[in-house]
Amino acid sequence: MIRLTKFSLVFLLFLTGSVYGQDELLTIQQAVEHAIGNNTELNQMRARLVQKENEWRTNTGISAPEISYFKEGISDDPTAPFAEKRVAITQEVDFPLTSVYRVKALKQEVEAQQNVIVAKEKEISSQVKSKYIEVVYALYLQRSRENQLNLAQDLYNAVYTKYETGLGNGIDLVNAEIQLDEARNDLDQSEWILHQARYGLFNVIGLPIEEQKYSIAFADTLFATDIDISQIQALAVQEEQPAYRASMNMLNASDFFLKEAKSNILPDIRFSLYKQDYGTGYDFNGFEIGLSIPIWYPFDQKGKIQMATARKEELLWSQKEIQLTMKKEIEYAWHNYSVSRSIVNRYHDSMKERSSRLQSMSLRAYQLGEIDLLELLNAQQIYLKSEQRYLTALRDYYMQLAALEQYLDKELIY
């Protein structure tokens, strides 16, 4: 009896029917690593992170210092050509509290971008594994359809033998011929499903067109530990998800931006330092300080405050949307995983052996004349249907594990 305590999918199929070297194999881990390293959207996110990490340097509220030269009281008198000469350095800065809130907000945005990248990496890994599982399923489906063709051929041979001996009739022979042609059609269709799965995988990992060769072989072992994931456990990790943490970072950033907007009612500061010359050299020093007065509050500061408040409200609704979507996806993956797991276990426990025995017994009984063709066809359909139902359930089982990997801090398929 095979249980899913440590279940594995083992397959070895070369698309051209030949054996190639190890450099032709594409394992699931290689596919994931290639996708994460070459995904265009992910690399754009990484570039945006570098931009965001350096954005605070341009938002400290400290402007470039201004150096100026001033000359006053210019006259034609050679003994007193001027009243004062001045060399000044002027520096303008935002109110310190404003700069502090702005920099804190930008740091939260950096953390948000980091979490977005982690979430995207998890999503890409899940997508690649799902596509890889589709290839595995297509390979097994092709093998199943080959088995179906063999059964149809055995059926035709049995019917033809009875027809030749005069124990059968022409109707049964035509029926057997149709069953054989249908099996050939199904096998041809399975080849298209396999190619569709292959190119779907190549596309999601970003494999260059010149490297998408028929010589690529899929030879690997997929392992999945049969884990008992309770519904409460799966849903309890929502607040630990990178996408949710990113939304929290953005919400925190909006708080700091709102405080920054409110702090704009405080005056910015302007400092000036002078070296003064009254005709005897630069022997005097001067100092000036200025404060900006926010007299245009109804237009400037109030507008910034209202914009920051609306931005915070937008992020609150966005966070709710993330929570609802996450709960739906976890619920769907968990329930589908549970159902698929039960079907796979049930097939291994009893259905596989029973349906195989039913098929072989029915063929023998037909050859001995104990049952008619209809009963034999029914037995074969039961056998094929149970096998293909098992393959579909096995695919869904792995697909849901791949989906759950996005939300659980552990690798379920490797």
Total of DSSP H or I helical runs spanning 4+ residues:
8
Give the CA-CA distance, first to last residue. Answer: 24 Å
Compressed to H and E, one letter per element, the order equals: EHHEEHHEHHEEHH
Gross morphology = rod-shaped
Could you list the spans in which at least 5 consecutive residues all have pLDDT below 50? 1-23
Name of the CATH homologous superfamily = Outer membrane efflux proteins (OEP)
CATH class: Mainly Alpha
Compute the CA-based radius of gyration: 37 Å
Bin the strand percentage: 5-15%
Record keyword descriptors for this entry.
membrane; two-stranded antiparallel sheet; Outer membrane efflux proteins (OEP); disordered N terminus; rod-shaped; 8 helices; 63% helix; 4-stranded antiparallel sheet; TolC-like; 414 residues; TolC family protein; alpha+beta; transmembrane beta strand
Describe the structure in your own words.
The structure is a single chain. With 414 residues, the protein is of the alpha+beta class. It has a single domain (25-73, 80-406), classed as Up-down Bundle (Outer membrane efflux proteins (OEP)). It is built from eight helices and six strands; from the N terminus they run E-H-H-E-E-H-H-E-H-H-E-E-H-H. The protein has helices at residues 28-38, 40-55, 96-164, 170-205, 231-236, 242-263, 301-367, 373-405; strands spanning 6-13, 66-72, 84-93, 218-225, 269-277, 284-291. It has a four-stranded antiparallel beta sheet with strand order 2-3-5-6, with no helix packed on it. A two-stranded antiparallel sheet has the order 1-4. A hairpin with a 6-residue loop joins strand 5 (269-277) and strand 6. Helix 3 runs antiparallel to helix 4 (170-205), helix 3 runs antiparallel to helix 6 (242-263) and helix 7 (301-367) packs antiparallel against helix 8. Keywords: Cell outer membrane, Membrane, Transmembrane, Transmembrane beta strand. It comes from Draconibacterium halophilum. InterPro entries: TolC-like (IPR051906).
